[in-house]
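Renewal narrative, Specific Aim 1. Our central claim is that a sequence can be written position by position from structural information alone. The example that follows is taken directly from our test logs and has not been curated for this report. It begins with the structure tokens describing the chain, in the order in which they were read.
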């Protein structure tokens, strides 16, 4: 199986502690252990959302030794002064982006990660999340990446932002909270893959007390997202499994299965969810034929060694 959205530098428990560990050599041992645990549960491909410390680049090298496939954006691109500091590098304008993109290419990014909006607000229900880049900026970044043969994943919440991302031709929509039906039909029409990451909100509704004062908002947004996922599947949107593992209350490895269970909760059949975790995951991670062959060969070898 494939998890199309994780953060290998985080642990899903303590953000500050995980960040501190990422700055010392111990992080390599932690990553190696996580990869072994992923493999034990049949997860052989991981796609990272980036980090400012470039831990995902270290992880990509370790992944080769552990014989799994790990895709890294090196660093995410975010608007200076806005959300995204721990995910990557800030840009003020397109000139900044050009310089950053050259750097990312030198580090062999597998995909470009753009942070187009912030997070879901748990304090009050609102679908008016601020959008950080205008359409001209986003279109330029997407076209520059596509020209270089690099797929684009976009972190976005809000109907307006999702519509902009679709119109600019991104490859995958990450999260997509507050999506409207019209964007769902557009995604189906333009063959854009959606990674709805239900686990970050869905897991908060399962006995966690940290956000107990905001449970009504969280529950409302989560249920609306379930409904949107069900419609997307019905109209033919390609949905891929991406847990957002590493974010609060979404643990590595278990998070992948949490995400699959949330997708099932939306009404999608279990067999269809498993197929999503493979077929749509292959597309979202932009795996080539050699990588797919490598993936299946290593899985067979591991099964023989068990």
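The sequence written for that structure reads:
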């Amino acid at each position: 199986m494939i998890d199309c959205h994780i953060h290998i530098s985080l642990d899903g428990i303590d953000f500050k502690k995980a960040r501190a560990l990422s700055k010392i050599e111990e992080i390599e041992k932690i990553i190696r252990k996580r990869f072994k645990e992923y493999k034990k549960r049949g997860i052989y491909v991981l796609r990272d959302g980036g980090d400012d410390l470039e831990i995902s680049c270290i992880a990509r090298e370790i992944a080769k030794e552990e014989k799994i496939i790990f895709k890294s954006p090196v660093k995410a691109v975010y608007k200076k002064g806005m959300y995204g500091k721990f995910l990557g590098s800030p840009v003020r304008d397109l000139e900044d982006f050009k310089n950053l993109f050259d750097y990312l290419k030198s580090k062999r990014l597998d995909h470009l990660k753009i942070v187009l909006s912030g997070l879901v607000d748990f304090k009050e229900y609102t679908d008016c999340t601020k959008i950080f880049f205008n359409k001209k900026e986003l279109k330029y970044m997407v076209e520059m990446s596509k020209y270089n043969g690099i797929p684009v994943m976009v972190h976005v919440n809000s109907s307006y932002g999702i519509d902009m991302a679709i119109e600019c031709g991104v490859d995958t929509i990450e999260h997509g909270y507050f999506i409207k039906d019209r964007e769902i039909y557009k995604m189906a029409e333009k063959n854009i893959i959606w990674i709805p990451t239900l686990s970050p909100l869905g897991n908060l509704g399962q006995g966690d007390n940290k956000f107990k004062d905001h449970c009504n908002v969280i529950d409302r947004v989560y249920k609306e997202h379930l409904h949107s996922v069900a419609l997307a599947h019905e109209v033919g949107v390609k949905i891929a499994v991406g847990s957002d593992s590493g974010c609060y209350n979404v643990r590595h490895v278990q998070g992948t299965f949490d995400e699959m269970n949330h997708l099932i909760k939306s009404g999608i059949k279990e067999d269809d969810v498993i197929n999503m975790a493979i077929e749509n995951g292959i597309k979202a991670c932009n795996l080539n034929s050699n990588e797919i062959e490598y993936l299946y060969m290593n899985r067979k070898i591991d099964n023989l060694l068990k």
